[in-house]
């Protein structure tokens, strides 16, 4: 089907990012025409699917890579505080949707789950204690605890301590009861449902094949239905590309100069999972630790309690792997076909400067089943292979970009790419993307619709009261906001 009249917004990809932007625009501009395109048969089937990610509400409560130790041993909390600030923005928006009845049961997507960090060895124990001493003074981290006492750690997470032999190296942990487990697949479905109820259109099994800027400033999207191969096209005044790793391919097709120099490096992963109730009931936390030398930040080992569709499970991993596909349902030639003259040098520079990453990935690929299981036993000494099975996680696309000094760098996190005129924007990268989807989309709205900022501000402040402020600087306000959102979302403070 071909549309002759331009739509206001076209969203490519049916994950948490497009769903969040569709939801926000539906609230701000209920008369705008929104079209959502998803190449698979349902939304949230790639990185937003609950079994394709670890479901952590990333707020830096337990993730050490958001507060790394510098070469001189110092530790600085600014990034960790910033990540937490962003997650609170997301929580406020979700709370607003619950209060308005647009999401009916928050516990279908978010549940209180303590966050914990567990480390071993004198160097990491010293680092964790320094991290704790800094974070306990931050209002957003109120309630964090530290211990190197096995009895205390056993109380927090019994499976970590059962039959743990006395070791030559010390161990320690931090504990934060205010953490959450988030099912971003469920949340994505509910956000899309709310947007379509407000008039947005969802096009499933529909793959956008090309993007071309028109003389009138709109974008011509040509697409094809994967079932029946029916082609179609439409014009859109604004396009958002939230298609995971495929966002790079589509932004390259758009021809915008802002995408030059960018590439992505796909990393696949697997988790060990158990649904055995006798095991699951003993572990109700998310436990993160330090990544192996050379491992990408997204490969930080974690032992996670999950709640999906009302059923609890445990995940351990991830075990990194390699696939040239940008999506689980991508193409085998994705890695090769992204190469352009403008991103070849940055990509080669990344390969040259990251031998530890290559060594790590080769080691993971060659690891035997028993060796992989041994890494679980380092966390859970009583683990038995018969209770666990392997699942394949989603593809993560690490951003590669130009760098004036090195030629190219591998970047952790997310990156927004927008055209100079704001008519098209896309998102590259991975964690902590889903947890910070709301502030990322607010940034896109501000960047791409500057003329609307003043008009939208009152409504945005109704939805997100602390927008534009630094929450962590006011302990009283932190207590109020966390209390209000916890109550609305039916989770602990």
UniProtKB/TrEMBL annotation:
Name of the top EC class for this enzyme: oxidoreductase
Organism field: Paramicrobacterium chengjingii
Keywords: FAD, Flavoprotein, Oxidoreductase, Tricarboxylic acid cycle
Family assignment from sequence similarity: Belongs to the MQO family.
Identification of the protein by name: Probable malate:quinone oxidoreductase
InterPro entries in the cross-refs: FAD/NAD-bd_sf, MQO
EC number(s) reported in the record: 1.1.5.4
Pathway noted in the entry: Carbohydrate metabolism; tricarboxylic acid cycle; oxaloacetate from (S)-malate (quinone route): step 1/1
TM spans (from-to): none
UniProt xrefs under Pfam families: Mqo (PF06039)
């Amino acid at each position: 089907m071909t549309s002759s009249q331009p739509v206001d917004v076209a969203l490519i990809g049916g994950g948490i990012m497009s769903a969040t932007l569709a939801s926000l625009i539906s609230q701000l501009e209920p008369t705008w025409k929104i079209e959502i395109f998803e190449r698979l048969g349902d939304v949230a089937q790639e990185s937003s699917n609950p079994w394709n990610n670890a479901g952590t509400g990333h707020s830096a409560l337990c993730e050490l890579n958001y507060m790394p130790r510098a070469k001189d041993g110092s530790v600085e909390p600014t990034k960790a505080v910033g990540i937490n600030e962003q997650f609170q923005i997301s929580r406020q928006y979700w709370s607003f949707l619950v209060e308005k009845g647009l999401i009916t049961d928050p516990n279908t997507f978010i549940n209180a789950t303590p966050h914990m960090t567990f480390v071993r060895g004198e160097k990491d124990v010293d680092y964790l204690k320094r991290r704790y001493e800094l974070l306990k003074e931050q209002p957003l981290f109120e309630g964090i605890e530290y211990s190197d006492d096995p009895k205390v750690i056993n109380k927090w997470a019994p499976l970590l301590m059962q039959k743990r032999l006395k070791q030559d190296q010390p161990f320690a942990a931090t504990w934060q009861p205010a953490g959450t487990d988030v099912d971003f697949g469920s949340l994505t479905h509910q956000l899309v449902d709310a947007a379509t109820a407000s008039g947005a259109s969802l096009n499933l099994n529909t793959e956008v094949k090309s993007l071309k800027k028109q003389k009138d400033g709109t974008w011509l999207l040509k697409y094809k239905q994967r079932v029946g191969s029916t082609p179609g096209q439409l014009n859109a005044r604004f396009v958002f590309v939230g298609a995971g790793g495929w966002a790079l391919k589509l932004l390259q097709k758009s021809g915008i100069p802002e995408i030059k120099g960018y590439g992505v490096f796909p990393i696949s992963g697997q988790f060990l999972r158990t649904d055995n109730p006798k095991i699951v009931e003993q572990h109700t936390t998310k436990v993160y630790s330090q990544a192996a030398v050379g491992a990408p930040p997204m490969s930080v080992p974690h032992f996670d309690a999950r709640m999906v569709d009302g059923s609890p499970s445990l995940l351990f991993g991830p075990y990194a792997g390699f696939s040239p596909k940008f999506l689980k349902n991508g193409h085998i030639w994705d890695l090769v076909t992204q190469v352009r003259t403008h991103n070849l040098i940055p990509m080669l520079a990344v390969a040259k400067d990251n031998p530890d990453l290559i060594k790590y990935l080769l080691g993971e690929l060659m690891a035997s089943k028993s060796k992989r299981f041994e890494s679980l036993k380092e966390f859970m000494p009583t683990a038995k292979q018969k209770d666990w099975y392997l699942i394949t996680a989603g593809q993560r696309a690490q951003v590669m970009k130009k760098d004036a000094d090195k030629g190219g760098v591998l970047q952790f996190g997310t990156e927004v790419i927008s055209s100079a005129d704001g008519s098209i924007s896309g998102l590259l990268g991975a964690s902590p993307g889903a947890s910070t989807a709301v502030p990322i989309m607010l940034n896109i709205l501000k960047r791409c619709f500057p003329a609307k900022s003043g008009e939208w501000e009152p409504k945005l402040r109704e939805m997100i009261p602390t927008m534009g402020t630094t929450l962590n600087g006011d302990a009283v306000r932190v207590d109020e906001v966390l209390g209000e959102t916890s109550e609305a979302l039916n989770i602990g403070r």
